Amino acid sequence: MWILLSILLIIIIGVSYFFYKVSGAVNDSFDPLNRKSSKGQKDLTKQGSFTVLLVGTDVKDSSNQNWRSDTMILAAINPKKKTMKMVSIPRDTYAEIANANATKTKINAAPYYGIKSGVGPMTNTVYTLENFLNTPIKYYVKINFNGFMDITDTLGGVDVNVPFNFNMRLFWKNYTFKKGPAHLNGHEALAYVRFRKYDPRGDAGRNDRQREVVQNLMKQAISLNSIGKIDDILNAVGDNVNHNMRMSDMLELQSIYRSIPKEKIETLKFNGQNSRDNPQNLWYYNISDSERLRVSLELRKALSLPLQTLDGKIYKGKIPKEPASSTPGQSSSTTPQQPNSSAPTKGGTTTSP
C-alpha cells in the first residue's frame, strides 16, 4: 500500500509540475487582441465553431517589433461536424487595410498601420482579414523565424514531399531541394516554406508548401511522442510565439484536432493574378470580389454561420464553384514571383534574408 501511495504521489507531483510548466509558458506568451466581442464572435460561440489564424512573421526574433505577416493561414473548425477548412492568404494580396483611412496595399502591411493607429499590429491584422473575408477570427498564433526553426528541430524535423528541384538561399547559406520525399530540419524547413522566386505557381505553390509543413508539424505536436519533449518545446517557444488562447482553449483544441478525420480536413485556394500594373510598380496578388465572396461563403458554411455577402447582407443562392485553373488544383495565375518580392509597400519596409 505504501509503495502504491508513493507511486501515486510521484505521478501527481509529476503531472502538477507538467501543467505548472505548460501553464507558465502559455501565460508568458499570452497576448490578447485589443478589441471587444463582435456579433460575428457571438455567432461563432453560439454555433460552437471557431477560427484560428496562424501568422508567420518576417523577422528572426522577438526583438524586432516592426514585423509584417509573411505567412497567413486561417483554419475554420467545426467540432460538431468534425471538419476543418484551411485557406492561405498570400502576403502580396491587394486589400483595404483596417485603420488606415481606406488605404489599399499589400495585406501584410496591416501590422504597420496597427502600430501607427495605436490599435496594435496583431489586432489590426485580424481586423483586416475579418473585413477581407467577412469571417470572424477568434484565436491567433503568431511565430517568428527562430520559433519556427526551433520547434521544428525539437519535434525531430518534418517530412515533406518536394514538388520540384530548387535552390534557396537563407541566412547566407544555400539549400538544395530534390523532388520527392524529404525530411527537413528547422533551417531547411524555413527555406522550404519561404521559397517562391522561381516557383512556377508563385504564391500559390508557396502557400501549398506552407500548409503541408504546418499540418505535419501539428500532427507531430499532438502525438504522444512529443509529450516527453515538453521542456525542450517550451524552451523553443520562449519569446518567439504569441497567442490569445487560454490553457483550457489549447487542451480543447488539441482534443478537437485529434477527432477530425484526415479526409475532413480541406484546403481552400484563392484564384487570383499577380500584377505590377499600378503607379508604384509593386507586385500585387489581385483577388476579385467574386473570388473573395466564394471563399468567404465556404468558410461561413464550414462554421455553420449564416451566408452573407461581403458587406454583411443576406446571401441567397448557391455557393459559386471554384474557377477553372490552367492546371487542376493550381492558381489561375502562373506568373512567377519576382526577385523583389520584399519590396517596400506604402507605409513600411521590410528586409527579408
UniProtKB/TrEMBL annotation:
Domain of life the protein comes from = Bacteria
Sequence ranges assigned to domain Cell envelope-related transcriptional attenuator in this UniProt record: 68-221
Q: Give the start-end ranges of region Disordered.
A: 314-353
Compositionally skewed regions (Low complexity) per UniProt: 323-345
**What family does the Swiss-Prot or TrEMBL record give for this protein?**
Belongs to the LytR/CpsA/Psr (LCP) family.
Descriptive protein name: Transcriptional attenuator, LytR family
Organism equals Marininema mesophilum
